[in-house]
Design brief:
Elements lengths: L7 H7 L9 H25 L18 H25 L8 E5 L5 E4 L5 H10 L1 H32 L1 H7 L2 H4 L3 E9 L2 E9 L6 E4 L1
Antiparallel strand pairs: 1-2, 1-3, 3-4, 4-5
Helix pairs in contact: 2-3, 3-5, 5-6
Length: 209
């Protein structure tokens, strides 16, 4: 699907159908956001291609996909996710003054980790909007991919200097101990995507949107 020619009817398919409770107010907000995306897409389509579905990865145009292009696409998707979920949270009266975190669980579902007085209501959002849940998983996967690539790049750089030392330093790449955790923290001040790579002694990478 090309976002530049998407219709209002097609837009509802991205984040749930009207039969699943998308009200007129949310539809208007989504249409407004899609207009903003079209404008953004016009500026970047020459570099990244069309906004295809699945939309989590950039269109390579037959060329190699770079980390830079993935990072740019991920930033755009984060903006879409923030605006869309933000509207739903307001519509359902979710209190963001009490911070909460979202993660992809072992079963693949997006859930609140920890405690929140409206935890069940927040989890219900992703049951009602499976495409929004898929978008979260896509963004999370992109962060996971970028973190793994960065760890690999560090190994290659160190290996060029001292192969033996590099293998010892980056043994997590070979013994299965590398663990990458990605989550989204939501507060009344905004949305923050966090990535923590265990086994590398690297600090947490925080990205606010």
């Amino acid at each position: 699907m090309n976002i530049n020619s998407v219709t209002a009817g097609e837009a509802t398919k991205l984040f749930g159908s009207r039969n699943k409770g998308v009200n007129d107010e949310f539809s208007r907000a989504l249409d407004k956001r899609l207009d903003e995306i079209r404008s953004t897409q016009e500026r970047i389509k020459s570099k990244h291609g069309s906004f295809h579905k699945p939309i989590t990865m950039p269109n390579s145009g037959g060329k190699a996909i770079t980390l830079e292009s993935i990072a740019d696409r991920t930033k755009l998707l984060e903006s879409v996710f923030k605006e869309t979920l933000g509207d739903i949270l307001k519509d359902r009266g979710i209190d963001t003054s009490t911070p909460f975190e979202l993660r992809t669980g072992r079963n693949g579902g997006v859930t609140v980790t920890g405690e929140h007085p409206q935890k069940d209501q927040i989890n219900k959002i992703f049951e009602d909007y499976p495409d929004l849940e898929n978008l979260f998983r896509g963004i999370s996967s992109n962060h996971h991919l970028m973190a793994a690539a960065e760890a690999s790049e560090q190994f290659r750089n160190d290996y060029a200097v001292n192969p033996v030392s590099a293998v010892m330093k980056h043994s997590y790449l070979f013994d299965g101990s590398l663990k990458i955790d990605v989550w989204l923290r939501i507060t009344e001040d905004g949305f923050t995507w966090d990535t923590e790579t265990e086994g590398t002694n690297e600090a947490k990478d925080t990205k606010a949107v």
